[in-house]
Each structure stands twice: as structure tokens, then as C-alpha cells.
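By way of example, we now present a protein record of this kind:
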Amino acid sequence: MKNDLKQTAVTSSVSFVNLSELNPSQRQAVTTTEGPLLVIAGAGSGKTRTLVYRVAHLLEQGVAPDKILLLTFTRKASQEMLWRAGTLLNDSCNRVVGGTFHGIANMLLRRYGHHLGFGSTFTIIDRADAEGIVNLLKGSLGLTGRDKQFPSKRVLINMLSGSVNKSIALDDLIYEQFSHLSEHVDDILNLERHYREFKFNNGLMDYDDLLVNWKRLLQDVPEARQEIAGRYSHIMVDEYQDTNLIQADIVRLLAHGHDNVMVVGDDSQSIYSFRGADFYNIMRFPKIFAETTIIKLEENYRSSQPILSLTNDIIRNAAEKYTKTLFTQIAGDRKPCLFAGRNEREEAAFVIRKIGELQAAGVDLANIAVLFRSGFHSYKIELELNSVGVEFEKRGGLKLTESAHMKDVIAFLRLHVNPVDSLAWNRILLQLDKVGPKTARMIADTISTAADPLQALVEYPSGKTWKEGIAKLAQLFQDMEKESAPGVFYELVMAYYQPLFEKIYRDDFPKRQKDLDQLKSIISGYEDLQSFVDDTTLDPPETVPALQGGDTERLILSTIHSAKGLEWDAVFVIGLAEGRFPHAGAGVGEQWEEERRLLYVAATRARKYLYLTYPRELMTPDRQFRRVGMSPFLSELRAGLFERIDGQGGQGAKLPFRPLSPGVERPLPRSKGKKKISMSDLKKGVRVKHPFFGEGSVQSLGQGRSVDVDFERHGLKTLHLDYAKLTLL
């Protein structure tokens, strides 16, 4: 390992990338382009800026764009970095290969997966799909029933995924972490084998398979390793402290032949071990790559020095770390504050009172966050906020495409790109009248194993009660075969699915319809269906909560894990009591150290104001109250780094808080001015226009609110009036 800096010479006489805009450490990281490089980037130290400038600098030095690989943990992060690099240089940044580990794995496996026996049209399944398959296999293997105390599908997927992400043999993981289920080891191993075979036979991969198979390509297929490793001469990895062992192995194999790999991360922000992240990846990097250069980014551009002094002290006692001291040139002398309430209600009252004071001082509500270790720790805060009429957003929850009605629609689109996906077949067949699980399974098995699945569906010997349903389904896929635009596929699916949707979700389908409308706008932005289907699993969009009354400013409530990478002017970290933070089961060793890093991450989110709070009394699981002290991480802090605030204004206190839009009545929704088309407006021969299919003539009116229209360019289509958005000509 070498700590001296190996900097490349600037060969161009004219530089478009102004490196003087970087501080010395950032500049060293940008210009050290040959050999392995580890950048320890403290919180708020400009790591993204460093990566952006490095991309632009490499291109300016003559490195071809498609020879650069940028690996991140969200697609948004890579897109933003490459866009910013383009503003520094030119459009060549658009050709740099950037994306998540799973996204790049997906791209390469579609190109090189044939070496492992995979076709290019495999479907990526999410956790819910995986649990569905496991549940199906439990039944077929006779592992269910009243006398079977077999693990649930959720626990089984936790086991299978944990084994992969932590690189532990499945039976070892069961004995170590699920010892109470050890009597089922043989059955679980048998189920895992069937699960693996089911995925392979149906052209499916889960999240873990993407990484496992990418590593297999690089490790076990010399021809593929030579070609893939040869594609990229310079590799950059963001948030390296969050990688698992498989991802670390992939990085090592990708750098085969040149070792031009730069990883950026902060050991003090490694908080995702529950996802399989291995803290020691970043610690052992210099041992894996000989001659590693280490550069530390310690100048902080986010927080005031009093906040940084406290966060430096939080991490000072970490058992293992890269020693660094954050500093800043940002002016500010306001120390972090520590408050101890009598109980959780007084703690909540204090937080809300301070939020009111911050608002009065000019801090926007959206620039204030309340952070906590676990979701249920915010319960009292939420009650108090509701009582004073304050709107808030709690971070977390379902992704948009994880809800049942969205998965229904996506199942049709998955089948168009992968007709052997029996899981998707099973889902849509169960929507048909008079088709139960056994029948659906039988039909799905027949269709998915046929040489021509669509023809097998058309020719399937249907029962009398569900013959019409099968015929309509077959017609849908025949219509989809004639089209190519993702937006048109979606329209066809909705014309078929809308009546079923309203029947299946009759209690709340108008509310769910908003999700489908949002999905329509998303899919219209794609040029090909495969990319859309991949992204619904690899990078699903968040559900956007509706804002009431037009308000755009809301307080943020968030777990610390969900807050990583974000920042606010004012941050409250609540629940910092012994037994709660760190949590009671942390014990000593690595779990304890990760809890320390979790507090460090929370505190470094604050720009100007940091409040640390805890209750002196907590309720135990048996509903008894007990006295508690502050978190041991707080008691370790040196004197003078924070200001104590005495308890005041407890239960029943009048809070000087101004809720959003006080005394303002909610405006009534304005009419859009357009009359919605109705069935009475239509009859045979009436001319209509559709946003995708263009102009056409009504041929007939069907059941409910469906209508048959003969379009000049697309032929006869059956549409549902509530969804099709037809206009009269």
C-alpha cells in the first residue's frame, strides 16, 4: 500500500475542466487516474463533485467514454453525475457507462448470459414475486398444512437472500441465525434447489441472481471475463462502504488486467449490514489491491463547525476506522442541543415547540427533519403533529409498482417480452371468472413450456365457464404482437384490464386508478418495453403522496437509514435513550459499532441546527414504565460540545406553533372546462380521436362502458371509456 500520490500528467495544453475549483484533496483524487485508489470521503465533503470532475478529467485526457464505468447504488445518482460532468465538458459524457450494480449486471447478462445458459429475454422478479414462487413450491413439495410448522415465505426468502448477500452457505446461515428452524434444514435446502430450477426454467432472475450470475461470468468463464474486463479501462464505485462481498468480488474481477479502480466511500457511514453490506470491504480494499493510494476528503461543505466537532467526537471511539477529522469554513457558533424529556410525550412536545420557533425564525418546514432509529419511534410525534394540524411526510413505504393492481398490469407487459414467465401467466389467469389456483397453474404450466406460448393459449382446451375469458386474453396478446410502442401496449392492456380491475378492487378502485394514471405517464417515456419492465424491478418509482389543498411544504419524518445522503437546515434526532439507541439486542462488537455509525449519519444530516433528544421514561414490552438514561453514545461525548436544555412545557403545554395555511379555506377544485365523453355521445359511425391510435370510427358499443373503434392506422380496438380518453371529432 502506498500513500504517496501518483498523479497523471496533463497532456493537453488547454484545459476545459477547471481543477482550481477543487480543494487540494479533491484535486488529488481527480488527477490520480492510474492504479487503485481509495477515497475516504467524510460526510458532506463533496464526493459527488469529485466523481463528476474525475469523469470529465478522464475524458479530457483522451479516455474513450465507453471505456469508463461508473457504479452507483441508485440510477438517479449516476444520471446526475454524468449530467453534471457534461456541463463541465461536453456531450461525450452521455456515452460514459453508468448505473447501479444490478442495472449493469442486467445489461451484461442479456449480452453474455448465453455462456451460463440464459436467454436474453429473462424477466427480473421482485421480492413479492419471489415469495409467491416459494409459497407455490411449499405447496407442491407438501411443506404446508396444519401439522407443518414450516417457515413462512417471508422468512424463507430472508434466508435465501441472506445466504447470497452474506456469502454464507444456506445450512450454515440457518444454524447460526435461525437455529430454532434447524429441524427443517433438509426441506429448506430441497426447496432452495427447486426455487433455483423454477427460475431457470421460466427465464426468471431475482435481485440476488443478477449479482451472482455476473460474478459467475467474470470468475468461471475466461472468455467472458476477458471481454467484459477489457471493455472498461477505468472503473469508479460510489458508496463502496455499502457493497456486499459479491459486489467487492465483482469490482476486483472487473479490474482484471489494469487495476485502474477508484472506490469512494466513508467507513463511518456503513449502516446497511442488514442488507448484506460488509463494513470490512472498505477496510480491506488496500490489502486486495496492492499499491493502493489513499486520499481523505475532510473539508465539509454542509455543516457548521460546532456540529462537525460533535460528530467527530461521536466516531472518535469507533473500534475500527480510517481516522479523519471533518472541518469547515462555514460560519456558525450555535452548538448542538441536548434535551431530556420526562417521557415520550414531553419529548414530542419539545420537538414541536422548537419546530415552531424555527419557523418563526424563517426556517422553512421542508428544511426540517425528525429522524429516528425505527419507524414506530415516531408514534408520539405523529400524534402531536396531528393534534396541532401540521402536515408531515413520513419517509418509507411501498414503491409505486409494488402494489397489487400495478403488478397486475405489469404482468401483461412482462409476458410480452418473456412469454415463458409462468409466474406472470398464473397472476393474470387467476383474474378470470371460474379459474381457480389449480386450473391457473395447469394452464400456466402448459403455456410456459410450449414452443409458441401464444399459440398454446389460443389452442388451449378451455372449460365452458371460462372459454370466453381465455379467448379475450388471447386476443389481447395477438393485438400486442402487432404493436411496438410501450404506450400503445399499455393502452391495449388497460382496455382489457379495466373491467376486471374495477371488479377485483371494487372497494377502492378510484383511489388505485390514480396509480395507474401515474404509471401511464411513466411508461410513455420509454422507447422499448424491455427497459420499462426491467426498471419496474431494478429502479421502481416511489409512490407520490397526494398533497392536500395545494400545500407543498411539509415536515419530514424519517428513519435514519432512509435519510442517508440527505440534508436539512435543522435536524432532530429523537429516542436517544439507553436500550433504544443502540437497540437492546445490539450487544457488543460489530452491531454496537454499526449503531454508533448510525448516530453519526443522523447527526451529519444537519446544516445549522442539531437537536438530540431522549425520554427519561420508556414503556417496556409488558406495558410497564421504567426509568432510562441517555444513550451511551451521548454519555461518551466530551463536555462543551453541546448545550443542555432543561425540560419545560410538558404535557398539555400550549405550543407556539403555526400550522400550515392558518385560517385559510381550502380552494374548491376548478373545472377543467372539457365535458367528459359518455356512452350517449357515441353510436356507430361517430368519428373519434385517441391520443395513441389517432382517428377512427365507432363500430359498436359493448358491455359496460366499452366501445369498439376502427382506427385508420391501427385497425379495430376495444377501449374502455373511463380510461381511453377519447375525444369527439
